[in-house]
Amino acid sequence: MENKASISSLLLLLLIISGGQSEVILNIENQCSYTVWLAASPSSGDFNSEHAPGTLEIFSMPEPWTGSIWARTKCSNNESFYFSCETGDCGTGQVDCQGPMPRYPVTLLNLSINNKSEVSYEVSLNHGFNVPIRIRPDGGTLVDRSGSSCPVVDCIADLSNVCAPELVATNKNGSYVACNSPCDALRDARFCCTENFSGQACQPNQYSKKFKQLCGLAHTYPADNDPPTYSCGGANRAHLATITFTNNCPNTIWPGALTADGGAQLSENGFELASKAKKTLDVPSPWKGRFWARTQCSRDSSGKFTCATADCGSGQVTCNGNGAAPPASLVEFTIAADKGQDFFDLSLVDGFNLPLSVAPQGGSGATCTTSSCKANVNAVCPSELAVKGSDGNVIACKSACVAFNEPQYCCTGAFNKPETCPPTKYSKIFKDQCPQAYSYAYDDRTSTFSCTGGPNYDITFCP
Q: Which range is the signal sequence, renumbered to this chain (predicted)?
């Protein structure tokens, strides 16, 4: 698990900035009710562009770096697969947008990072508004301001309510999509702070004053320095667990991820993984959730994405907050904060679809060791638990709880305690094949593993 310096941002983009002795990372959470597509100029490295509502993206920033990050909205491909967005479009025709500046209006998150992991940051409406944004440093103090903590800056109001008709940006149907700045809309030196209106002659105007009333912590015209552009140093070092996924199966699989307890979903919560391929994913701490792999996936004529096993029902490759439909082999994690005690396990409580293993990389503890389920439970699955594919072969094996939904198998009702819910003939089949995996709800003694010290983890399908 890596130590990285941290900022957070919220669309009613939440950006968390963490900073410290190593590097700056951004935790970007999309709290909007709609999907957004991130973009940056200049390139800020490898991040996932598309963010569904409630998803979290974590990525490291290069040092030094000075530029802008923004969100594009209402994006789609046309019949020629040219990708464009109604707001924030960068004109490349592609989903990835790192380099070109956007077509205004757009809310800008401006950052300047030096070689000391010090971050200067602002929310700027100098080129208009399209989405609410908040920037929240994770700890730290202001550079050259003794002892002062690094403050939040944001614009989380809906400026459409105060957008003057002459500033309104519309789509091809004439509907409001964003609000221009007066400089970009009217091209007047008074609003652009050019010619005779530069320097001290640049003053708030009737438009910027309306913006300021709702977004007092954002910069609303070119000379706006209230609040100042803050520079933050010594922010808390974020602890990330890097999860490496390896597909040793002979066929392509589609791993899925689900954050538990209503937490923000990881931005990459579903992806394709070809045979023998690897992929890494950074997980924040603390974090609780699960991973699994879907099999035999395809799209129908309407483009709907479905899988024969462990489908998450989203109709897409990404699962977007949906869990796996059982039966599914699961890897479950509780990642602790501050390199505390992590817990992890393999679970067949919802049944089995693929062999898998999880191996800590680093860390310590009596049970900080690999947990593996290498056997193909499908080969010994009783007919009453079997799920068969279109060719008649067994492709997954239900647990008895999933198959029969009876208290003695689900450990519910009168069977809701370890003393009253012993192993059954069905759970013993799973346990005989995979002794380290959970075979039923109270199978804790040999199935829970833990590590301290902030390790990373390798998950292998078909180990």
A: 1-22
